[in-house]
Amino acid sequence: MNRPFSDLKELILLQVENGLDMGRILQSDHACADIVYHISNEMHTKLVKYILHNDNKVWFMIDESTTISKKSALSICLRVNIPEINIVNSNYFDLIELTNTEASSIANSFICALHDFGFDNNLLLRNWVSFACDGASYMLGKKAGVAHLLLNQFPNLILWHCSNHRLELAVNDVDILPICNMKSFFDKLYSIYSTSPKSKKELETVAMALSVKLNPIGRILGIRWVSSSARSVMAVWNNYAALYQHFHESSLDLRRNGGDRAHYAGL
């Protein structure tokens, strides 16, 4: 049902109202979570035993995430070739908390998680085919990124960055003046209205006076999905009247210093 465990109590009451005898075992969301975690761990263990027994080829992808408590975490996905049924199966494998987000710490936490489930270095050297990462540039890296550190340990790895981000990263790497200027402009807008509550409030006041519905402005040509850049461009397009008015008023506001007025005039 894709509902959080905290909804369990209400779901049980709903089923009781529908006349279903729910018994007394699964009344606690904590008990339900424990059962789910136990089953998932058993499934992971069984899958790893199958891979070890059959010497299957494996592929891993990692992505940064956060736990419910907003702690940094690492999401791990596994793909494994199953010759018996001629398919490559994809599985969500694990979510581990990170002590910090340095490349060396992420790489060590990832390898330790694989060891905990039974993957030893000998099997990984022999059967680990490909590694993909989804996130910031330090995940891939050319000198000290996560992927580079793993490649030092497992030299036969094929490294991939998430294909969904490759287009944006490729365009970002192109040294063309109009593209650089556009990216710089969007970065400046994001900086002004995301880090300054005062500027955001001023823009909202201007937008209200002009009857403009504001859309959040994000960055472009970064490590996010291509659609995120499209949303940012459309946000600026839709917010144009309010943005122009705010820049104009701020450039003439004598309560601001000369540098701020010149900054808004430039925008």
TrEMBL record:
It comes from the Eukaryota. This is E3 SUMO-protein ligase KIAA1586-like. It comes from Hydra vulgaris (Hydra).
